[in-house]
């Protein structure tokens, strides 16, 4: 059975992904800074490693086949944490994955990371960090899939998405639960390496869109 490392497992999307993997009896390892913030940390089927992404976390990759990078600095932090987590920690994760011969690396990025220069916003440093992390992964030789969701909501997931960018920002929103479902679908497939998907709330089943 393959083992999946979730980096940022205590975040909102990370929690959803980790919980589903545990419930479906998939082999999972959660990398978190504080295990007390992980809802299912007391589940005996889940391996939990505590580490600071600003330091060395290479040990988390031992014996792992797949990696999901869903860590983020958070909306309340400054540009320094954006640089250290969304770019530098992501870069280190790619290096560790390459050294460990990871078979699949799923990077959770952001809409706008394809062209940060086109956006004038307070989140531009975040988008630049995501852009550089994505480009580093693409050039690394590590088998990858990148997802770039639109604005995230806590609405109930419907399992319905679109990968075609809507014309208005309001239509770009997507529930975190549907991003998590998309990540898990990608994890289950062997033919999506090298793909970059933008994700938005839509009307199509995840398994009919992500091809």
TrEMBL record:
SUPFAM superfamilies: NAD(P)-binding Rossmann-fold domains (SSF51735). Pfam families: NAD_binding_10 (PF13460). InterPro entries: NAD(P)-bd_dom, NAD(P)-bd_dom_sf. It comes from the Bacteria. Residues 8-188 form the NAD(P)-binding domain. This is Uncharacterized protein YbjT (DUF2867 family). It comes from Marinomonas rhizomae.
């Amino acid at each position: 059975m393959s083992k999946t490392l979730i980096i940022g497992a205590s975040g909102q999307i990370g929690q959803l992904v980790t919980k589903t993997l545990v419930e479906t009896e998939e082999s999972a390892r959660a990398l978190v800074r504080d295990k007390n913030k992980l809802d299912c940390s007391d589940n005996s089927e889940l391996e939990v490693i505590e580490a600071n992404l600003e330091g060395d976390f290479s040990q988390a990759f031992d014996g792992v086949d797949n990696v999901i990078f869903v860590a983020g600095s958070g909306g309340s932090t400054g540009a320094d944490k954006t640089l250290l987590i969304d770019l530098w920690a992501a870069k280190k994760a790619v290096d560790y994955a390459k050294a460990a011969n990871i078979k699949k690396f799923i990077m959770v990025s952001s809409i706008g990371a394809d062209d940060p220069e086109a956006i004038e916003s307070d989140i531009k440093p975040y988008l630049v960090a995501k852009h550089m992390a994505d480009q580093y992964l693409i050039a690394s030789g590590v088998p990858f899939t990148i997802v770039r969701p639109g604005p995230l909501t806590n609405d109930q997931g419907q399992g319905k998405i679109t990968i075609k960018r809507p014309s208005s920002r309001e239509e770009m929103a997507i529930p975190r639960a549907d991003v998590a479902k998309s990540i898990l679908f990608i994890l289950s497939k062997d033919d999506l390496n090298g793909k970059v998907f933008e994700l938005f709330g839509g009307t199509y089943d995840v398994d009919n869109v992500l091809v």
